[in-house]
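Friendly challenge for the regulars: who can give me the structure tokens for this chain first? No prize, just bragging rights.
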Amino acid sequence: MSVHTSRRPPALDKDGFPTRDHPSGPLPKNRRKKRKDPLWAKLTVAFGAVLLITSGAGVAGTKWIVSSANGAVTQQNLLGGNQKTATEGGGDLKGAVDILLMGVDARKRWAVDDLRSDTIIALHIPASHDQAYLVSIPRDTEMQVPAFPKAKYAGGVAKATEVFFHGAQNGGGWAGGAQLMAETIKANTGMTFDGAAIIDFNGFKSVIDALKGVHMCVDQRVKSHHMQLVNGKPMYLAEARKASGTKKDIWYDPGCQDLEGWQALDYARQRYGLKNGDYDRQRHQQQLIKAIAKKASTSGALTNPVKVNSLIKAAGDAFVLDTGNVPIADFIFGLKGVAANDMVLLRTNNGTFAGNSNGRETITPKSMEMYKAVKQDKLAQFILSNPDVIANEK
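First reply, four minutes later:
Bragging rights claimed.
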């Protein structure tokens, strides 16, 4: 692959990307939920699949990790009043579990209320708790967006990626953006969720770096439209244009390979120049989530206290979480049967653009049936009848 790096660029932080103070800020200690007993085991499998604790860590190791993780991840109310109801199986993790994942690119120079959610994924875990499915909602899907008084939004028609922005306005912040997203998805697809997570992809890079990179299969040659090498160092284009020195475009060439944090995230962000545009990007982002989960669970990092501490700190920078009304310990133990290799990546709209009469993107009837299957916990049966919805991971 045509990428070479040396030291990190002076324009970036020590990890190679802009740092940020969490836009919403950490919750006061007296507002954070108390955590008790082993609970970190599948925390980030459920929320983007970052860390796993295997039995090799032992009970003592698990308790140490839980103690260290107590204040690492910010928790907020991301679902508002849109979590699953009791009649839908909400509050009882013996059934299916559905988690809304929203990815944002929160660079420090951006205001809290000037963010879109370019990644929107429903993570579905069936009642058997032995599988996990990643189902994307295309960013440009035209949606009917409900009114949201918290952000002084009157409602209207908007792209899915814009919904988060509308909810974050006028003091709504990240929580408001997520709440309006959950409400909009419910109104347009019927899907409701037990929990939610906002993933800051710049923080995600630190998780990948703590894992010493991830293994991914690049399926088509693509040029980076976000970064450039300056004297061999990766920089965002905005910084690269101001810098002096030898500049070189970054290309990702086909083949299975180990990628550093900045490479993996940059590749997963690309949509221009790909055969199927944003649909290929959706699949690449799903692949990245699975790759992180797999690396965390197979690298032995979770048996090394120093590495574990680094992962916990990185995860704290990457996520804002909401487990609904379910105690977090119950939430985690309810997912203990899910492993990285059990993740199945699914395609919306057969992986290609589907426009309506106005030239705006819409959801095909087949994909609406897939969303309905998520809602009814019949996704496995739907896939048996529609095997072409499974995404190619190579």
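The chain has one domain: 32-212+273-383. Residues 5 and 233 are 5 Å apart (CA to CA). Your move, everyone else.
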